[in-house]
Amino acid sequence: MRELFDASVHMGHKTMFWNPLMEPYIYGKTNTVHIIDLKQSFVLLHNALNVVYNCVLKGGNILFVSTKNQAAEIVKEEAKRCGQYYIAKRWLGGLFTNWVTIVSTIKNIEKKSNMINNPDIKIIKKERMCIERNLKKLEQYFGGIHDMNRLPDMIFVIDAVKERIAITEANKLGIPVIAILDTNADPRGVDYPIPGNDDSVRSIKLYCRLFADTIIRAISDSFADKKDKNESVAEEEKIVKKPNNIGHIKKIIREE
């Protein structure tokens, strides 16, 4: 709880910009700013972290989404740290609902990248510059999902107002949504709401770090479980292959 307070998670928007649907999560107001109820933030945050842990433990993947300037680099770094995917530049409409086309675009990026890096393929300077320019632009949009071969099992959104299109597309496809909701947000369409400040860099760093740490722990526990299962199977196989001592003793008695 103290960590949330120190990161200014409780500081909402000015009262004039609030969304009445966020009233249940508001503790009060000071001057012209709404104060978010940290007790609810704490409980809902831990609930969301548990959901993510169980999802990743079962082999699921998480897509981090935040295209606001102060969050983009943080989201990118933390998603990479825990081996997950991210959208940090701009959400292109149809990213989920038109996934087949997006996959085709990503494959085209890889094809062109391999082409310009292949010394056996001769490309004129002007064409090379054009391809490199397009690749750089596409890398900004798809760099965080270039190896995502299927839709994510869950998305984690910072700023539900700015990323409303992402939430809407996830809702259409039944992909669970975890989102940080400031006092100006609309909680509808969010499966696991976390009321909190979505503008403060300290708050954003805290959210992303907690989710990344949880994912890393889930991946580690998943590997440990698989190792234990493999060892258990190996032990069972040894027992099955072990000679039947009772039968061996009976055979000796008969021979005598």
From TrEMBL:
One of its GO terms (molecular function) is structural constituent of ribosome. Keywords: Ribonucleoprotein, Ribosomal protein. GO terms for biological process: translation. It comes from the Eukaryota. Pfam families: Ribosomal_S2. InterPro entries: Ribosomal_uS2, Ribosomal_uS2_bac/mit/plastid, Ribosomal_uS2_CS, Ribosomal_uS2_flav_dom_sf. PROSITE patterns: RIBOSOMAL_S2_1 (PS00962), RIBOSOMAL_S2_2 (PS00963). HAMAP family: Ribosomal_uS2_B. Belongs to the universal ribosomal protein uS2 family. PANTHER family: 30S RIBOSOMAL PROTEIN S2 PROKARYOTIC AND ORGANELLAR, SMALL RIBOSOMAL SUBUNIT PROTEIN US2M. This is 30S ribosomal protein S2. It comes from Biomphalaria glabrata.
